[in-house]
Amino acid sequence: MNELLLQTIVDKLNKVDESIWQINSAAPQMPDYTEQLKNVGTSLEQIKADVTGMPERLKFPTAAVYTLSQNLEINNDLLKRPPVQEIKHYHHVKVGVIVSACLFLLLVLGAVWLFNTRSILQAYRAGDIKYRYIQLQAGKPLRPFLSTIDSLYHAHPQAFRDSVVQWEEERQRIAAMLHEALEKEAEASQLRDRAGKIR
């Protein structure tokens, strides 16, 4: 019986092999996707690992936010009290400019001094010519008077000059008093005329 069972199993297996062979020959060849399936499996494992680690990466960064808020408070405090900026202006004047300005001022002062000296010299020359003209045109009685004046001036020039200035001031004072008296007389006559018209 064992043989018979064994023979039956062998026959059945042969029939199964034949059937498989017929199916394989009748069906078209199926492509081999084992490599792609392994790659897909590897990708799925990677995705699974990424998804598992995602909660850790998406965790809220409290320490960084705390540091940022402290820095913002410090900046707000600094902006409320801005630093005082001192602006200093430095004007650098070159030595050549200063020397040029001094030389220009000296030139102007020299020109003014020369002009004044020339004016004084012209006044002296005019006085000399006038005096010489008086000496030439004066008659005999005036010549001794002029030589006496020359002698007085040469003897004491400062005293002579002071007496002439004092004499001129006295004459100007008298002239001013006479002018004032004439004005007051004119004013008095106007008041008399008005008073006469009112009567």
Summary keywords:
single chain; mainly alpha; rod-shaped; transmembrane; membrane; coiled coil; transmembrane helix
Describe the structure.
- It is a single chain.
- This protein has 199 residues and is an all-alpha fold.
- Among the domains are: 104-150; 156-199.
- It has six helices and no strands.
- Helix 5 (142-155) packs across helix 6.
- The longest helix has 43 residues, at 95-137.
- Residues 164-194 form a coiled coil.
- Keywords: Coiled coil, Membrane, Transmembrane, Transmembrane helix.
Fold blueprint:
Layout: H1 2-26, H2 34-57, H3 62-80, H4 95-137, H5 142-155, H6 157-198
Helix pairs in contact: 5-6
Helix count equals: 6
Spans where pLDDT lies below 50 across 5 or more residues:
none
For the secondary structure, the number of strands is: 0
The whole-number mean of residue pLDDT values reads 82
Element order: H for helix, E for strand: HHHHHH
Distance between the termini: 193 Å
Helix/sheet category: mainly alpha
**General form:** rod-shaped
Q: Helicity level, as a percent range?
A: over 70%
How does the major sheet shape up?
none
Radius of gyration, in angstroms, nearest whole number: 68 Å
Note the beta-strand portion.
under 5%
